Amino acid sequence: MRHVCAGLPGAPSDASVVVPVIEFEGVTKVFPGGTVAVEDLSLVAPAGRITVVIGPPGSGKTCLLRMVNRMVDPSAGRVVLDGAPNTTARRSQLRRGIGYFVQGGLFPHRTVARNVETVPLLVGADRATSRQIALALLERVGLSSVFADKYPGQLSAGQQARVGLARALAADPPVLLMDNPFAGLDPAVRGDLQDDLLELQRIAPKTIMFATQDIDEAIKLGDQIAVMAEGRMVQLATPQTLLSHPGSDFVADLLGRDRGIRKLTFLPAGELPLSPAATVQAGTTGFRARAIADSHRERWLLVLDPERRPRGWVDSAVLGPDEIISGAVVHPLGGTFYADESVLAALDAAILSAAGLAVCLGDDGRILGVVSHTEIARYLTGQRPAVPVSHPFPPAGIAATTAAPVAAPAPTPAPAPTPAPEPTQAPASVEDVEDAEDAEAAEAADAADAPPDNEPPTAVLPTVDPAVGPVTPARAAMQTAPIPVVTETRPAPVPKPASAEPEPAPTPTPAPAPEPEPARAEQAEPAAEAAESASTDSAADTTTTSSNSFAAGRWEWNAETGEWIQLAESGRSEAEKA
Amino acid sequence: MSWAWDNRGFLGRMCGEHLYLALVPLLIGFLLAVPLGLFLARARWGRPAVLGFCVVLEAIPVLSWFVFLPAIIDTTVPEKINVLVGLTLLVFAMMTQSISAAVAAVPDELRATAEGLGFTTLRRAFQVDLPVAMPVVIGGLRTAAVSCISLATLAALIGVGGLGKVITEGYSTGSEPEVLSAIAAVVVLAVAAENLLVRAQRYFLPWSTLAPVR
Known about the structure:
The complex is a heterodimer.
Chain A: E1 22-30, E2 36-45, E3 50-54, H1 61-68, E4 76-81, E5 84-85, H2 91-96, E6 98-102, H3 112-122, H4 127-140, H5 157-169, E7 175-179, H6 187-203, E8 207-212, H7 215-221, E9 224-229, E10 232-237, H8 239-244, H9 249-255, H10 259-263, E11 279-281, H11 286-296, E12 300-304, E13 310-315, E14 330-332, E15 336-338, H12 343-352, E16 357-361, E17 367-372, H13 373-383, H14 400-407, H15 430-435, H16 439-447, H17 473-480, H18 518-536, E18 555-558, E19 563-566, H19 574-577
Parallel strand pairs in A: 3-8, 3-9, 6-7, 7-8, 11-12, 15-16
Antiparallel strand pairs in A: 1-2, 1-4, 4-5, 9-10, 12-13, 13-14, 16-17, 18-19
Chain B: H1 2-6, H2 8-42, H3 47-59, H4 62-73, H5 80-104, H6 108-117, H7 121-151, H8 163-173, H9 176-204
C-alpha cells in the first residue's frame, strides 16, 4: 500500500511520499442502460501537477475522476497510478490514499475537527494524533482552532469549502481528486480558495485532478487543461495554448469571446514601463494644480489623500484657479494594480480610470508609477511575435504565468515618457552594454554592478517585429551583433520587488534598448523641474518619484544630482539620509 | 379530579404498566427496523415490494393481532406478550418506511464523499447514512411513540392491564371521573413522550437545527 498515508503523523510529506503519475489508458465507461459516460479516453496527469478537466455538465468529468479511486470501474481500459494499475489494492484502502473533495460533502453531524479527522481515523490513527493533524491542517487552510468544535452548519460556505479541503488533505495523500469543489461560492471567496490551493500545491505538490465548469478557474489553476465533451477529450493543452490555439469551435465557444483578453493574465504587470505620476494633494487650489500639470506636461493629475494614498484623478484643464481639489472635481481612480499582478489587471485599471492611466502600487501601498492604456497597447505590440509554448510544463517551481513572457522577450521601443534609463531596463547582456552608445545607460548599468561574467547570455531578441517602431542605431547594432540564439529559454525567477541588490542582467524586461531618444531627454527636464519645485515648496505635492525596479528594489529620481538612487527599505533615499 | 387523587397509587401503577406495554414495542420495533431501513435505502431491487408489505402490516388492525397472535405463536389470550408483539409489528412497519425514506434522502454528495474517503459500506451506513438521517428518523419515531401509547389502551380488550383497563372499568361501573382521568393520563403520557424525543434530538443532535451544509 504505497500510497496510503505515508506521511500520516501530520508532518510535511515532501520527501517521503511518491507523488504518482495518473495514466488513463483508453478508458471507457458504459453505464447499465447504455449511457456512455466516457469513451476511449487516454490521458496522463503528470506527477505534482494540476490537471483540470473542464466540460459542460454530463460530459463525463465526474466519471473520469471517479475512475481514479474506483468509485467507477471502467468498462474498458484501465487507470494506472505510477505504473501500477489501481485495481491491486482493496477499494477502501485505495481511496484512503487519495484525497477526495466534492462540493457539499461535509458531514453535517460531525464537528469541523471530526470531519477533518475522518481519514486519519479510518486508517487507524489514534484520537489524539488525528486531532493534532486536524488542527494543524485547519490552520494551514486558514481556519483558526476556534472553528474546530463547531459544526459545518455554523460556518459560511467559504469556510466550509476550506474544511473540505483540509479533510481531503488530512491523510496527506499524494493524489487529490477535486470534483467541482468551489462551485457556487461567491467570486471573491472562490478566488481566495484558488490562491490557497495554488499555495498548498507550491509547498507540497500533489497530483491533482480538478473538475470544473468554470473556464476562468481552469485557466488559473491548470498546469494542463483537458476539455471534455460527451465523454470524449477534445483537447489537452496548457492554458496558454488553449487560449491561443483552441482546437475546435467547441473549445473556442467554451473559452468565450474574451479569450484574447484573458491571455493577458499570463503576462506579469511588472514588465510594463511605468511613468512617474504627476500628483497633487487633495485640497490644493486649481492654480497650483495647473502649475504642477504644466511642469509635467500632463493634463491629468493623481489626487492623493493626506496619507499619500491615491484617491482619484483631476482634470487640470477644466479647473478654475480658485477651485479646491476635492469632491466632485475628483474623478474616480478606476483602479490600482500591483507589480506582481497581470497585465490584465493593469489594463483593467487603465480602462476604468478617467485619465486612462493605471496606478501601480508597491507592496507597501506606495505609488510606483502610472501606465496608460496606450503604453500597455504598445507593450503588447512588442509581445506579439509570441513563440508558441513548446513544452506543456515549465520547470518545477516556476509559476506557469511567468513562462510565456520569458519565452518571447521581443523588443519594445522605450516608452516615450520614461524620464531616464532605469537600472532594471539596462541591457540584458554585457555585449549589449558595449554596443550601446548611450553613455548614461552604461553608467547606470555600471552603478548597478555590471552583470557578473559567468552570467549566461540571456535569450533575447530572437525576432524583431518591423511594426514595433523605428530602428534606432542601438537596435540596429543589436540586430547585427552576433547574439547567441538560445532556443531553450531560461526560466527567470519571479521578480521580487523587495530584493535588496540591483541585478540588471537577468531581468527579462522587454525594453532593453538604451538608445538616446530625444523624447526622453525632453521628458526628463520637466521632471527635474518638478522635483525642484517640490523641494522648495513642501505644501504643493509634486512628487515625481517613479520606480519600475521590480527586480532590484526601489529607485528614485534625484533631481539635484540627476541620477537614479536606490532607496533603502525605509523608503528614503540614501542621499536624503546623508 | 378528586377520584384521580384518591386513587393515585392505582393510577400510577396503571400508568407504569401502560408505558411498559407501549415503549418496549417502540424500542424493539425501532431496532429491528434500522437494518432493514438502511438496506432498503440502498437496495437496487425489492424496495417497493417490502415497503408495500410494510403498509399492509401497518394497516392490519392492531386489535386483530391481540386476538389472533395466540393462535399463531401459541400463547394464551390474556398474556401481555400478545400486546407487545402486536405493537412491535406496527412500529417495525412504520419505522422501516421512515428510516428507508430518510436515508434515501441523504444528499448524494455526502454518500459519494464517504465512499470516496474510503468508508466501507457498513461503516458508511452506520457512521454517515444513519446519523445524517437521524433527525428525520426521530420525526417518525415521535409519531410511532404517540400511536403506541394511544393504541396500548386496546390491551384492555383482551384483559391485559394498563390505562385501557381503567377506562373499561370506569365505563362498566359508570364512574365518569375514572374514565376521564384515564383518558387524560394517556394524553399526558403521549405528549410527554413526544416532548422527550424532541428534547433528546436537540441534546444529542445539536447540529440538526442548523442551516443545512451547502
